[in-house]
TrEMBL record:
Top-level taxonomy: Bacteria, Pseudomonadati, Pseudomonadota, Alphaproteobacteria, Acetobacterales
Name of protein: IrrE N-terminal-like domain-containing protein
Residue stretches making up the IrrE N-terminal-like domain: 1-89
Superkingdom of source: Bacteria
InterPro entries listed in its UniProt record: IrrE_HExxH, Rad_response_metalloprotease
Length: 99
């Protein structure tokens, strides 16, 4: 829902629609490429709502970049998938990772 709300707020030029039936748009190779700017923006919007950076900072979430158990714990706390949490942490903190 947060992703679709992002489209609603960010992409005013998109035509509104109401679902009459139910259509499921499964992810495919193209959607997995993360090349559609509107999808990237909606994903970032949703991640920012569901996993706010200030909350992650207070929990020292950057430390989870190298600890799968911490990623799993954070995903549980924020009630998101491990994949979503992993992406959020990588997007927010990958610059802090020591190589």
């Amino acid at each position: 829902m947060a992703h679709e709300f992002g489209h609603f707020l960010l992409h005013h030029d998109l035509q509104s629609h109401t679902d009459v039936g139910f259509r499921v748009n499964y992810r495919d190779r193209k959607s997995s490429e993360a090349t559609d700017i509107e999808e990237i923006e909606a994903n970032f919007f949703a991640a920012s709502i569901l996993m706010p950076r200030p909350f992650l900072d207070r929990m020292n979430a950057f430390e989870a970049l190298t600890d799968d158990d911490q990623v799993n714990r954070l995903a549980e706390i924020f009630d998101v998938s491990v994949h979503a949490m992993s992406l959020r942490l990588a997007n927010e903190y990958s610059y802090q990772r020591s190589f």
